[in-house]
């Protein structure tokens, strides 16, 4: 039995994957943004071990989530599932758009502060192929709301997730760290007309969470639905860029470089 923590698991794929993992006999800790969402998460997956709460768009609350998780003990796998897709700039109390906070900063904080698990899964998207590899203004602190593009920000953040997976695979050779594109599936985020298969997405999540199959024993890779390995944007393999991304995030949130 594995012990697994899934961010953004009050609904959507996060909740579906949690239910599947519980059904497979694993212990799953859920995450929700607030108390009401925590009730929703528990109702959807009553077999979960517990649920932690905290807003991933807030740096201090994200650090608090890490504290909650560490108090629960060791985990075999952490799945960075939470993410924002489209929407306005939505400046956070930390001065950056919520999308950058949830998609880029939060996974960095949690990975930095949670006691190192055996496996890490960073949720990406095939849209990362269109993401800018520039690290000049990763968190939109210079461009600001006037130049905001939710599509550009999302694509770049999903590239960051692949870079994180590869950076931690390289720096922590004792763990398996991978990125996952779940595909465009019919969830609240994907919309009812999305053509992808939820089941194929879940298969890849579960494979990486459980870590038993041959492909799941790889590290620093990019996976797609149906337990298939994919090929990410070439820029994701730039080790200097990976290291710089980690430095930018560490400086912004006041944590030491990993």
From TrEMBL:
GO terms for molecular function: oxidoreductase activity. Residues 219-230 have a biased composition (Basic residues). It comes from the Eukaryota. Keywords: Oxidoreductase. The keyword Chaperone does not apply. The keyword Transmembrane does not apply. InterPro entries: NAD(P)-bd_dom_sf (IPR036291), SDR_fam (IPR002347). Gene3D superfamilies: NAD(P)-binding Rossmann-like Domain. Residues 219-239 are annotated as: Disordered. Belongs to the short-chain dehydrogenases/reductases (SDR) family. This is NAD(P)-binding protein. It comes from Clathrospora elynae.
């Amino acid at each position: 039995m594995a012990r697994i923590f899934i961010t953004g698991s009050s609904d959507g794929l996060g909740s579906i994957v949690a239910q599947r993992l519980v059904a497979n006999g694993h212990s799953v800790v859920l995450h929700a943004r607030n108390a009401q969402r925590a009730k929703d998460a528990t109702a959807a997956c009553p077999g979960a071990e517990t649920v932690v709460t905290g807003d991933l768009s807030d740096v201090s609350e994200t650090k608090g989530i890490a504290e909650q998780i560490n108090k629960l003990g060791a985990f075999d796998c952490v799945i960075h599932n939470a993410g924002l897709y489209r929407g306005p700039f939505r400046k956070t109390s930390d001065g950056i758009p919520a999308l950058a906070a949830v998609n880029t900063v939060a996974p960095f904080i949690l990975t930095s502060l949670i006691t190192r698990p055996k496996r890490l899964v960073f949720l990406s998207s095939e849209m990362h192929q269109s993401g800018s590899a520039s690290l000049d203004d990763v968190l939109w602190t210079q461009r600001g709301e006037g130049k905001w593009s939710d599509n550009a920000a999302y694509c770049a953040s999903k590239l960051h997730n692949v870079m994180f997976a590869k950076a931690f695979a390289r720096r922590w050779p004792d763990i398996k760290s991978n990125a996952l594109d779940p595909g465009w599936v019919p969830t609240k985020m994907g919309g009812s007309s999305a053509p992808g298969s939820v089941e194929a997405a879940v298969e890849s999540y579960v494979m990486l969470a459980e870590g038993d199959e041959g492909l799941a024993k790889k590290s620093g890779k990019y996976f797609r639905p149906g337990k298939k390995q994919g090929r990410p944007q070439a820029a994701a393999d730039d080790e200097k860029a990976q290291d710089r991304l980690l430095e930018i995030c560490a400086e912004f949130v006041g944590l030491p470089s990993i």
